[in-house]
Design a protein that fits this description.
By secondary structure, the chain is of the alpha/beta class. The chain folds into two domains: 318 residues, ABC transporter type 1, transmembrane domain (ABC transporter transmembrane region fold); 137 residues, P-loop containing nucleotide triphosphate hydrolases (Rossmann fold). Helices cover 61% and strands 10% of the residues. The chain has 20 helices and ten strands. A six-stranded mixed beta sheet has the order 6-7-8-3-9-10. Strands 2-1-4-5 form a four-stranded antiparallel beta sheet, with no helix packed on it. β7, α18 and β8 form a beta-alpha-beta unit. The two termini are 32 Å apart.
């Protein structure tokens, strides 16, 4: 009975989120964040910077040598040097190309390392977040942030920072050459630089806003694909191909339009710089040409300044693009920072070893975050150690939510749950969860071997004999050894190369191997046929003997032998007692019992 989420993308500004969006920070903090991202890769960045400075020096040397080449060879007529000039140019270009290669390789691999390390950090953070936070996002949104958003951050090093390191020194050196040769010609080109800077800054901020929007739409697309893959059988059986196809095409078109707006803004920045560069070159040609005609400067001076200015405008255009790309990346960084800003589960607390007295709910109420509707209201239960509690009630009554509070997937909105008189919130999460095993109707298996899927039930010291013993108790050993690879059979995604009953037996074996003080069975035999259920029920009876067990079930066999049965309806306990007592006193229980009996007779007859 979880709140519905009509949008596949959660809001990033909800009051329940504890985060610090980059958009609300001053620029100094943004740069601090970027510096923090880059800091682990400083050695590579420094080495790349050295190669960038060499490249900048070579570019300046090329512009500098235009004057002596023009004056010595073409003005003074020393044509013997013309044969040496090509060799010098070849050497400079080879050396510049090698340095370009090295700085580019170093920066791009640094960007790849950043993505690798940030994805590791993102995933580690993800699996340590509370279920209450994860449930607010779709799997597609989280996957998009992990793959698309984090992947885009490599541009900080491989593109933006690399361009700044290479082009800023190049512009400085070339402008220095131009100023030295003829300061008034150089200053003429500088007049347009403020317009380039302001225009680039304005357009880049728009790019940042649009890029963040694009990433959100990419998350929607990822969600749609993930949703269809998980529900492919339903899509096909209900003939939903056309509907889902149309839905994807529509959202993909929206994403395309947003991306096209980003491209227009980015290319607009380049266009602005291109136009202003044209004005600068035209002004220099007009003014410089008049100076040459009047004899105030030599053609060598003029062409040296012109070469330096023209060469400088190329890196200026690249710097404009890099700044735009940096702003674009900051929009992505906001989404990643928002996720990493979520508070992890606090695992600290008292140590725990076993359940010796009882598990007790005292006035427990619960509402899902962001909703006012109470899923559970004033729940009082005492479960003595070693006893079996069965929870029954109509669908949506709050049964699964009730047990989700024990491993603290969620915390009660009010009231307290006590484990041997200790509040669960004061117990170490790691210790608390090690005391229990949960088997649910929706079995979760991983794309690994059957052996590993069972062995994960207990950390450390697991032998093949232990795994086989657990599988035999769960009545899974026979069908496992009949498979071509036996226990080494690799399962498909979610174990779909096995039947529903086989998947459930492996999940039971996993729980048996853990041998926990508390066993929670959430309709754990619902996917089994009557014959399989009887076989597994015998195994469960053995496993539950002397063990505290909470059973949510629609099957008679898992209810009638319980020490206590509670009937829950609309989040409240409406009746409690043994099976026999409830058959005499509870109208709702009698109704549920008649339904179960009818279903059981149908299953047996089939």
């Amino acid at each position: 009975m979880k709140p519905s989420n009509n949008s596949p993308i959660p809001s990033e500004s909800g009051s329940n989120y504890k985060h610090k969006p980059v958009s609300n920070l001053v620029y100094s903090t943004i740069w601090q964040r970027l510096v923090g991202l880059v800091r682990p890769y400083v050695p590579r960045v420094i080495l790349a910077t050295l190669f960038s400075l060499i490249v900048s020096g070579i570019n300046g040397a090329i512009a500098w040598l235009v004057k002596p080449a023009m004056d010595k060879i073409f003005v003074e007529g020393n044509y013997k040097y013309i044969y040496l000039l090509p060799f010098g140019i070849i050497i400079l270009y080879i050396f510049r190309g090698a340095c370009n290669f090295l700085q580019s390789y170093l920066m791009q691999t640094a960007g790849m390392k950043l993505v690798r390390d940030l994805r590791n950090r993102f995933f580690s953070h993800l699996i340590h977040l509370p279920v209450s936070i994860i449930s607010r996002s779709t799997s597609g949104d989280i996957l998009s942030r992990l793959m698309n958003d984090v992947g885009a951050l490599s541009n900080i090093l491989s593109q933006s920072l690399r361009t700044f390191l290479l082009q800023v020194p190049t512009v400085i050196v070339l402008m220095g050459v131009a100023l030295y040769r003829r300061w008034d010609l150089a200053l003429l080109s500088f007049i347009l630089l403020p317009f380039i800077a302001l225009g680039t800054r304005f357009l880049s901020r728009l790019v940042r806003i649009r890029r963040k929007r694009v990433q959100r739409y990419l998350a929607i697309l990822t969600h749609r694909v993930s949703e269809v893959l998980q529900g492919l059988r339903i899509v096909k059986i209900f003939g939903m191909e056309k509907v889902k196809d149309g839905q994807f095409v529509k959202e993909n078109q929206t994403t395309y339009r947003q991306m096209a707006k980003v491209v227009r803004l980015k290319e607009g920045t380049k266009f602005l710089i291109e136009v202003l560069s044209g004005f600068a070159v035209a002004a220099i040609l007009g003014y410089g040409g008049s100076l040459v005609a009047s004899g105030e400067i030599t053609p060598g001076d003029f062409f040296s300044v012109l070469a330096a200015i023209v060469m400088a405008f190329t890196p200026l255009k690249k710097l404009g693009g890099a700044y735009t790309q940096l702003q674009e990346t900051l929009g992505v960084l906001e989404r990643v920072d928002h996720f990493l800003g979520q508070e992890r589960e606090e695992s600290q607390g008292q140590a725990l070893d076993g359940l010796r007295r009882d598990l007790r709910y005292e006035k427990v109420s619960f509402s899902y975050p962001g909703t006012d509707a109470q899923v559970l209201q004033e729940i009082d239960i005492t479960i003595p150690a070693g006893k079996i509690l069965a929870i029954v009630g109509p669908s949506g009554a709050g049964k699964s939510t009730l047990v989700d509070l024990i491993p603290r997937f969620y915390n009660p909105t009010s009231g307290t749950i006590l484990w041997d008189r200790t509040d669960l919130r004061k117990i170490s999460l790691t210790d608390l969860r090690h005391q229990m095993a949960i088997v649910t109707q929706d079995v979760v298996l991983f794309s690994d071997t059957i052996y590993e899927n069972i062995a994960v039930g207990r950390h450390g010291g697991v032998t093949g004999e232990d795994v086989e013993k657990a599988a035999k108790v769960a009545q899974a050993h026979d069908f496992i050894v009949a498979l071509p690879q036996g226990y080494n059979t690799v399962l498909d995604e979610r174990g779909l190369n096995l039947s529903g009953g086989q998947r459930q037996r492996i999940a039971l074996a996993r729980a048996v191997l853990r041998n926990p003080p508390l066993l929670i069975l959430d309709e754990a035999t619902s996917a089994l046929d009557s014959v399989s259920e009887k076989t597994i029920q015998k195994a469960l009876d053995e496993v539950m003997k002397g063990r505290t067990t909470i059973v949510i079930a629609h099957r008679l066999s898992t209810i009638i032998h319980a020490d206590q049965v509670i009937v829950i309806d609309q989040g409240r306990i409406v009746d409690s007692g043994t099976h026999e007592e409830l058959m005499e006193s509870s109208a709702l229980y009698q109704e549920l019992y008649q339904t179960w009996s009818s279903n059981n007779e149908k299953n047996v007859s089939q």
